[in-house]
Amino acid sequence: MAEVKRMRALLGTFVEAAARGADPGAAVSAAFARIEQAQALWSFQDPASELSRLNRSPGQAVPVSPATARLLRAARALTRHSGGLFDCTVGGALVAAGALPDHGGPPCLARGGAADIALGPGSATLLRPVRLTLDGIAKGYAIDLALAAMRRAGAVAGWINAGGDVGVFGDLALPMQRREQDGSLRPLGLLRDGAMASSRTGPRDADFPAHIVGPGAAAPQAGIWTVVANSAWRADGLTKVAANAPAQQRVALVSRLGGTLIDPFYPVEEVT
Fold it and tell me: Which of 238, 225, 167 is nearest to 196 (CA)?
């Protein structure tokens, strides 16, 4: 069966996409089109994105696309059910820290909560002047949308790797590995019909520029957090829960929220 694999620079990283089927090239092209759309809708860096327009307009109902509404609903739910360990309302704190750009608008709170996001038919409203950042979940959601686009285009199997966040479907078993803090690559087993995401916490540098905000005044525990889940958005978001959760609660909390925290020595194929 024909297979096509391509790579493009998107979502602030390099995205690889591969598909098998009668017309795998069309499936890969459809996947990249969805990822481009996701980048245009949810980029905090782009002042013209739907997210940026929402952040500049607290108290106003801002028209949003169905995909944005679904992502906001997922981000709000994960913020609420994790008790704020995943928090999509910390954009103000990240702007103040210089980690994200300021595109104007009224003065904002450093952070808020799930109750600050109201969703109506075709619109979203920020009830207080918070700034949402979807960086902790949007890459995974873009992968999910892209994989769905592959299926609609006739692919029988495919995978996407966006800077280490991976989703796969069909009769594929992807060998997974993780880059450790010392630069070494550690095997993590095989990934089948699911998703895996990793996030790093600790000192920021050129290789690891991400900035995860801890709950309250606490800082995330330093480490690399890898989660397997049935969808990439959930795996992506739950890596932030893992980073911020108390050590004695981390594994159980990630499990309760729909993921599996991966120990580097535990084969992925045994937990998917």
Answer: 167
> Per the domain annotation, does 121 fall within a domain?
yes
Q: Where are the alpha helices (DSSP H) in 10-137?
A: 24-42, 50-55, 66-81, 91-96
Question: What is the count of structural domains for the chain?
Answer: 1
User: Which residues lie below 8 Å from residue 234, measured CB to CB, with a gap of 6+?
Assistant: 78, 140, 195, 227, 257, 258, 259
CA gyration radius for the chain? 18
**CA gap 90, 67 in Å, rounded:** 21
Inside any domain, residue 81:
yes
Task: Identify whether 80 is part of a domain.
Answer: yes
Domain hosting 74: range is: 54-126
For 248, phi and psi rounded to 5 degrees? Answer: -75, -15
Please tell me the distance from the alpha carbon of residue 13 to that of residue 209, in angstroms, as a whole number.
11
The strand pairing partners of 199, in sequence order, are 225
pTM: 0.91
pLDDT tens, position by position, 29-88: 999 999 999 999 999 999 999 999 999 999 999 999 999 999 999 999 999 999 999 999
**Three-class SS state of 91:** helix
Residue bearing tokens 């990822």: 35
Q: Which CATH number fits the domain that encloses residue 90?
A: 1.10.3980.10
Q: How many helices (H) and strands (E) does the chain have?
A: 7, 12
Burial degree of 36 (CB within 10 A; 0-12, 13-18, 19+): middle
**Strand, coil or helix: 160:** strand
Residue 122 inside a domain? The answer is: yes
